[in-house]
Design brief:
- The protein is of the alpha/beta class.
- The protein has 2 domains: about 160 residues, Cobalamin-binding domain (Rossmann fold, 3-Layer(aba) Sandwich); about 270 residues, pyruvate-formate lyase- activating enzyme.
- It is about 40% helix and about 15% strand.
- The strands form 4 sheets. The protein has a 7-stranded mixed sheet, with helices on both faces.
- It is globular and about 65 Å long.
- Bound molecules: cobalamin and iron/sulfur cluster.
- Iron/sulfur cluster binds next to loops.
Length: about 475
């Protein structure tokens, strides 16, 4: 069977993200002995021509769409991307008889909505290393899809959804097909070598849907294998800047530390950035991260006041945030703090207090404050939004719907903007969508300033969009 995998991700700012999920699928298929072709549309200037040419070359029986993003999850300056998948499907259907399947982070978050909108009969939720091979075996033989984990499929006009399986052992999976990715191009657009050290997050943040994508039990790839892979990626690609794509890199802490110790032991000369959580990010962890090449931490704090930490389900305390601030400041690792306002019962008072408390803790290189929670069906916020009448069970969530606490008035975004303007390192989506910031990002990407937020203090006041 011939399979063509198409990576659909055309968002290039703040940085272009290499399609490592699609490349995992390519490698899995190669290991099965399938004829597999790969097309990455990220830098395509002529989608139709590139598609037609790939279809002619590969003559596929199956076309697999890797859909990474549906939208930018931003309540202000909203952008949706799923229409690109629709354009791709139109060209595929006009130019081949292949069966279309789809997967990826974007497809997994709202599979029913997307499958119906795009009229695609097979959608994979979550990871594909086990489910896709199982599907292909059934596809060519019995066509009994009942046991394929995480598959949403249409049979006789009815939709069936099999629960995903999160028991796969990451040590058994091969390294993704890195050689199929044009790393040079991604690096020119601020990109990194993406690398995943684990799947699964045990935290219960109110807005998060990662349990559907990866499960809730951390499954770690052994530190030795991770560093073997990283050595190989450096050697084979010639690049050395990594982004750990784990939802929380520093949890379980022992795993993150073991990877860092292995990097240090092998003297692997890399630079890396990761998403971290204040739980367990203490002085020792920060020192070890720095020694292992960490050049930036993106700290998912979201809330700071006791009430909002509780309501956002964060699982850490204000004291944990304070300790992590101190540890990062002492270590000298640049860090950016991400805040998400608008959660249940959030108020202007909480916003003001949040800024005051964080400024008392010290200075982060950047604070990114956004407003409004993108509602997904399988995130805890869904039930709250139903209860409060923000949505009904019939609301179409493909076109993004945001939860914003009713205690914040119509003017919430302006209030947040005004607050952010009081601190030079703070910014909001109003700034990120401005022409000036986009131009600055392009320049920083071009000169490979990483992380691209580390010097915001020097240009922060100029990036404010005039209101
Ligand atoms: C790390 C990450 C980032 C990093 C990426 C860093 C880097 N250099 O790689 C950064 C911070 C840059 C980022 C940015 C954005 N991200 Co992001 N990101 C993630 C995260 C946490 C991991 C993605 C990843 O690389 N996973 C590892 C790979 C190996 O797994 P995978 O891609 O899921 O692939 C597996 C399966 O999906 C499946 N699969 C994949 N393709 C296919 C195809 C077929 C045919 C099949 C069968 C299976 C299959 O098999 C693969 C192997 O198991 C996910 C959430 C998550 N937990 O998955 C969000 C996520 C993908 N991001 C999301 C979004 C929205 C964005 C942004 C648009 C946010 C913004 N406002 O700017 C930007 C877009 C940037 C861009 N240019 O694309 C959303 C997408 C959903 C949506 N609503 O659209 C997600 C799902 C988070 C969420 N909110 O739910 N992101
Ligand atoms: S937001 Fe981060 S810490 Fe919270 S549940 Fe999701 S992945 Fe885990």
């Amino acid at each position: 069977m011939k399979v063509l995998i198409i990576a659909i991700n055309q968002e290039k700012l703040p940085l272009a993200v290499a399609p490592i999920g699609a490349a995992c699928i390519v490698r899995t298929l190669e290991h099965m002995g399938q004829d597999v072709y790969f097309l990455d549309l990220c830098f395509s200037n002529n989608l139709k021509r590139n598609l037609v040419s790939a279809l002619q070359k590969s003559d596929p029986d199956i076309v697999g769409l890797a859909i990474r993003n549906l939208d930018n999850c931003s309540s202000t300056g909203r952008k949706t991307f799923y229409q690109t998948a629709q354009r791709v499907i139109k060209v595929v259907r006009e130019n081949s008889n292949a069966t279309i399947i789809m997967g990826g982070g974007g497809a997994s978050v709202l599979p029913q909505e997307l499958a119906q909108y795009l009229d695609v009969s097979y959608t994979f939720i979550g990871e594909g290393e086990e489910s896709l091979p199982a599907f292909l075996r059934e596809f060519s033989k019995g066509r009994n899809f009942l046991k394929i984990p995480g598959l949403l499929y249409r049979e006789g006009g009815n939709w069936h959804l099999n629960p995903p399986d999160f028991s796969g052992d990451l040590d058994q999976y091969p390294l993704y097909a890195y050689e199929k990715i044009n790393h040079k191009k991604y690096f020119e657009h601020g990109g990194f070598i993406g690398y995943q050290t684990k799947r699964g997050c045990p935290f219960k943040c109110v807005y998060c849907n990662y349990r559907t994508l990866e499960g809730t039990r951390p499954r770690c790839r052994s530190p030795q294998l991770c560093v073997d892979d990283m050595e190989k990626l450096v050697r084979e690609t010639g690049f050395r800047d990594f982004f750990f794509t784990d939802g929380v890199f520093n949890w379980p802490t022992e795993h993150a530390l073991a990877i860092c110790e292995e990097i240090i032991r092998r003297k692997l000369d890399i630079r890396w950035i990761a998403y971290c959580n204040p739980v367990g990010l203490d002085e020792e962890a920060a020192r070890t991260f720095k020694a292992a090449g960490c050049v930036g931490i993106e700290l998912g704090v979201d809330a700071v006041t006791d009430k909002m930490l509780e309501n956002m389900g964060k699982g850490f305390s204000r004291q944990d945030i304070r300790k992590t601030y101190q540890a990062l400041i002492h270590s000298g690792i640049p860090f950016a703090v991400f805040l998400l306002f608008g959660g249940p019962e959030d108020s202007y008072q909480d916003m003001v207090e949040t800024q005051k408390i964080l400024m008392e803790f010290g200075k982060a290189n950047a604070v990114f404050a956004s407003l409004g929670i993108r509602i997904y069906r399988d995130a805890p916020i869904y039930d709250i939004a139903i209860r409060e009448g923000v949505i009904t069970p019939h609301t179409d969530l493909l076109e993004p719907v945001f939860y914003i606490s009713s205690r914040l008035g119509e003017d919430a975004m302006n209030q947040l903007d005004r607050l952010a303007r009081q601190e030079v390192t703070w910014s909001t989506p109003t700034d990120w969508n401005s022409f000036t910031v986009k131009s600055v990002q392009r320049i920083l990407n071009r000169f490979r300033v990483i992380p691209n937020w580390k010097d915001i203090e020097t240009y922060g006041t100029h990036m404010r969009r005039k209101r």
